[in-house]
């Protein structure tokens, strides 16, 4: 079970989440805490309903019952668009950038609360619009430098490799300056050399920039490298949690992944 934490340390607190699909209970009274400053892994065998749990935390799927609190606020009924305003950003397992837009243009779409989005400001505060646009442009160039995408700034997103698309999506998330980042299988479809680069940037975001991160991932080597704590799901419930080295030796976890004969 999830141990008790001080409320001011909890950025996400999910209590007794349940999600049904027709007559199938995909998530069954699941609890999960994400602690300020940590990197948490969410793992489990195929069919464990990790993605369903992840999507409820991200706001793209609502629980049938239970509560999700983000920085103390009840966001159980809020969608992903509201949660980005509360400083929560998420990636997708399969990134879908705008293929005909450049890398730079794709990143700029992640900017939030721009004066240029409001008709009044466009008409009567052109200076504010220009300042926001310049600030967003500078931030986008800084993120491209950080993620080693600057040489692709003016290339259409359609030419990017799978790993480069993961980096582009991360840059677009970071444009909104989230405090909590949910990463959906960042290793999926990425070649080993680029995966090291992605790992290094995720670690830097956590350790140097103070981002609190939850990672759902099948790559156990990556989870062991990134995460200080792991929650294991099986059949929609928490099976185990702890440090990665302990979890991967847990007999219940081994049986869940490999079967009873393991």
Automatic annotation (TrEMBL):
Keywords: ATP-binding, Nucleotide-binding, Transport. Residues 12-260 form the ABC transporter domain. SMART domains: AAA (SM00382). InterPro entries: AAA+_ATPase, ABC_AA/LPS_Transport, ABC_transporter-like_ATP-bd, ABC_transporter-like_CS, BCA_ABC_TP_C, P-loop_NTPase. Signal peptide: none annotated. This is ABC transporter ATP-binding protein. The keyword ATP-binding applies. It comes from the Bacteria. It comes from Sulfitobacter porphyrae. Transmembrane segments: none annotated. The keyword Lipid metabolism does not apply. GO terms for molecular function: ATP binding.
């Amino acid at each position: 079970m999830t141990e008790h934490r001080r409320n001011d340390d909890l950025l996400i607190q999910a209590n007794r989440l349940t999600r049904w699909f027709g007559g199938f209970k995909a998530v069954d009274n699941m609890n999960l805490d994400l602690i300020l400053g940590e990197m948490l892994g969410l793992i489990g065998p195929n069919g464990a309903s990790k993605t369903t749990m992840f999507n409820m935390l991200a706001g793209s799927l609502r629980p049938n019952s239970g509560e999700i609190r983000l920085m103390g606020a009840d966001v159980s009924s809020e969608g992903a668009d509201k949660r980005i305003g509360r400083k929560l950003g998420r990636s997708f397992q399969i990134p879908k950038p705008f293929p005909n837009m450049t890398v730079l243009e794709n990143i700029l779409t992640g900017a939030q609360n721009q004066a240029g989005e409001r008709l009044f400001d466009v008409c009567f505060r052109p200076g504010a619009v220009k300042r926001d646009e310049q600030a967003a442009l500078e931030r986008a160039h800084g993120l491209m430098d950080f993620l080693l995408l600057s040489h692709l700034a003016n290339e259409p997103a359609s030419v990017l490799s799978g790993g480069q698309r993961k980096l582009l999506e991360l840059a677009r998330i970071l444009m909104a300056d989230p405090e909590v980042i949910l990463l959906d299988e960042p290793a999926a479809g990425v070649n080993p050399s680029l995966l090291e680069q992605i790992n290094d940037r995720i670690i830097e975001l956590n350790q140097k920039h103070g981002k609190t991160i939850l990672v759902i991932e099948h790559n156990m080597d990556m989870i062991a490298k990134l995460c200080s704590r792991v929650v294991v799901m099986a059949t929609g419930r928490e099976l185990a949690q702890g440090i990665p080295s302990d979890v991967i030796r847990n007999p219940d976890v081994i049986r869940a992944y490999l079967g009873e004969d393991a």
